[in-house]
Structure prediction request, 379 residues.
Amino acid sequence: MKFWIKYIALGLSLALLYLLLWSNSQASVDLRQWLAGRLLLQSPASTVQSEPVKTETPASFADAISRSAPAVVSIQTVSKGTLSKNPNPTSVEDRYLVNVGVNIGSGVIIDSRGYVVTNYHVIHEAESIKVQLSDGRQKIATVIGSDPMTDLSLLHIDLENLPTALSNSEREVRAGDVVFAIGNPYGQFDQTVTMGIISATRSTRSDLPIYQIDAAIHPGNSGGALVNAHGELIGITTQQLAAKNQGAAQTGISFTIPFPVVQDIVKDLMDDGKVSRGWLGFSANPVNQRGHKLLAPDHIQHGQGFAITEVNPEGPADQAGLQYGDFVTHINGELISSFKQVYNITSESKPGDTVEFKFYREKQLMTVSLTVGEAPVSL
Prediction:
């Protein structure tokens, strides 16, 4: 009996194989389609996959850059000349040499009425300031006012139909953003564009946020524009970091004054030609995870608050009792989650105002009231 069962099973298997592989009958076709459908539904390979998110990088940023580039100008200054003895005179008239100080830089037209922003160190001690536009027009500028602390100066040129830089105060600037520096390197290569990213957003003092960038910056770029990938002005280039026996371009580190800071300074300079700002008298920085665990109380999240890294002797913070290492969480009752808040509070404070600090020292809660001072003038 078992013998016949084996032969019957073998016969059925061969018949099924024939129907699946060689027969063209309708029953065979239907059977093959049914099995194919069953196998596809159960196969992991048949799982529907979503389309990958496509991120397209523009082939060129020329159109974006062209929105603000025409507003970038070249600046040449001439300072008071000095006399020095000629070591190799050829005549009586040739006994002395006249040394005329010439400086170069860049600037940005921020107002169609003729207002130009540049760095203070570009026009410092200048007897004459010549501004040249991207279309070739030239004009002698007048100084409206300067703020040495932020290294900013406001000029005015009497010309019509002036291009202005595009800006967008609603767009956040973050580390990793693509940026372009536009300026006049070496006073000869106007409208030069270099590309990089925002390397970091920092604060050199509690009242002065700054962008660190890696776009190539050269002498003559000072006062030029930093624009984002949308062509919007986000800052004014100001400083280069150069290691000993190296050029600044070799370090890949430069700094830019954020445009919101520029706008605040320009507003004050337009009002009376100077900036009267409050001064808290300390430097500070956000803390990393380790620093947060060491200094902050448990209920404060990482990213909130900041640590005081320096206190100016006899300054407002020193007189109020703040110390190095204090972890500040609130100013005037406002939880601090970014240095932009600190800058806004400081910039809105006037000398004589009272500001309340809530902070932790060795994780013990403390509060002090600080009387805002007058910011000292420094270069």
About this structure: The chain has nine helices and 23 strands.
